[in-house]
UniProtKB/TrEMBL annotation:
SUPFAM superfamilies registered for this protein in UniProt: Bacterial luciferase-like
Record's protein name: LLM class flavin-dependent oxidoreductase
Organism of this sequence: Nocardia terrae
Homology family: Belongs to the bacterial luciferase oxidoreductase family.
Presence of the UniProt keyword Oxidoreductase in the record: yes
Pfam families assigned: Bac_luciferase
Database matches in InterPro entries: Bact_Lucif_Oxidored (IPR050766), Luciferase-like_dom (IPR011251), Luciferase-like_sf (IPR036661)
Domain Luciferase-like: 8-316
Alphabetic keyword roster: Flavoprotein, Monooxygenase, Oxidoreductase
Length: 391
């Protein structure tokens, strides 16, 4: 049975970065963030794959994860996601199994069709074909990961007596996840193969509305194919930035949040009035949407708790909440945001202070007895000492 105490927490990076800073430093900061998350006790960190539009600057999540894994001890890493239509399935499996061995089983293989239209355009891929290609690639990849010999021919790849020469670190295999946004396509694909489900648009108005419906589709398709729909393997993504007060959170992001609005609006050719000021962007992102990022929490730990509880109520329970990380504050403020999340949000759901609260409550409820006993003990000690010396 699902309980809030079973919730896990992590971060999801595209990664989004402003175009006016050094990409070499931005990449190093992302690796520094992985070390910080590991120190704070987060469970997972995901890194995406993108090849264009400037803001999302990691084209090879496996390369990033290999570096970050050497700086961490317990954090699990997900490819968030690897775009299967862009790669030959055998090469994908070889790179993933190598990374799984290097991280000693700390890898989650997140998969998707590819998101950015310019990526597909540059590779000569028809966007209408990407989901079909994802399904074909996934069929081959899962067979190769199981150790099967695969012969398969499509209009974009051929496998001839293909086999993966490396094992997975865990004989049971690598956890494989597939992305879902608003349509049920991701739920159908994940359910068909018994994969984990990654809901990227969980906090967008449309994505939130269909969360329970898409989970129902996933459960139904899992049952049809003999798989168990386990809520512990369902991950939801929500942008969150925290500070001690709502005003402090707004101050922390106000200088650089405009880069995210520009990233969205330059691609769509729009110039909305709300994008003219940091306050307008913050209000738009909190109350409506900012592109595909969903409604953001830019505020306090209490606001983050309320958002997560809303997601729990809508879904009936899920496995992991991933904070959509956006590089829009100073390094000090960014670290503080995750520290607040780890120190105040996570314990709320993990119920880690239940026994401490019970101990103090008992002391409060029995204060007359306990204080009376303390006074009696002090009085006795005083009497015993002075009584003995006076004699």
């Amino acid at each position: 049975m699902w309980t809030a105490e079973s919730l896990k927490f992590g971060a999801f990076l595209a990664p989004y970065h402003p175009l006016d800073a050094d990409p070499a430093l931005q990449l190093r900061r992302d690796i520094d963030l992985m070390e910080h998350l590991d120190h704070l006790g987060f469970d997972e960190a995901w890194m995406g794959e993108h090849h264009s539009t400037g803001a999302e600057i990691v084209p090879a999540p496996d390369v990033f994860i290999a570096a970050a894994a050497e700086r961490t001890e317990r954090l699990r890493f997900g490819t968030g996601v690897m775009s299967l239509p862009y790669h030959h399935p055998l090469v994908t499996v070889d790179r993933i199994t190598q990374l799984d061995l290097q991280t000693r089983g700390r890898l989650i293989f997140g998969t998707g069709p590819g998101k950015i239209p310019l990526d597909a355009h540059m590779m000569g891929i028809d966007p209408a074909e990407q989901r079909r290609r994802q399904g074909e690639a996934l069929e081959a990849i899962l067979a190769l990961l199981r150790g099967e010999v695969v012969n398969m021919s499509t209009d974009w790849f051929t496998l001839r007596d293909a086999r993966a020469q490396l094992p997975t670190y865990d004989p049971a295999g690598i956890e494989v996840a597939t992305a879902s946004t608003i349509s049920p396509n991701g739920s159908v694909l994940a359910g068909t193969h018994g994969l984990s489900l990654l809901s990227l648009a969980a906090s967008s108005p449309m994505g939130f509305e269909v969360l329970d419906r898409n989970w129902g589709v996933y459960e139904k398709v899992c049952a049809e194919h003999g798989h168990i729909a386990d809520r512990a393997r369902w991950r939801l993504v929500n942008p969150i930035f925290l500070a001690e007060t709502r005003e402090e959170a707004e101050r922390a992001v106000s200088r650089r949040i405009g880069s995210m609005a520009a990233y969205v609006n330059r691609q769509t050719g729009e110039n909305p009035a709300w994008a003219d000021t940091p306050k307008g962007i913050i209000d738009q992102w909190r109350n409506e949407n900012l592109g595909e990022f969903g409604q953001a929490v830019i505020g306090t730990p209490d606001e983050a708790i309320a958002r997560i509880e809303r997601l729990v109520e809508k879904t009936g329970g899920f496995g992991t909440l991933l904070v959509l990380h956006v590089d829009m504050a100073s390094w000090a403020d960014t670290k503080r945001s995750y520290e607040l999340f780890a120190s105040e949000v996570i314990p709320h759901f993990k119920n880690r202070n239940r026994r401490r609260e019970a101990s103090l409550q008992y002391a409060q409820d029995n204060r007359e007895l306990l204080i009376g006993q303390l006074v009696t003990a002090i009085t006795k000690a005083h009497t015993d000492y002075y009584g003995a010396t006076s004699g």
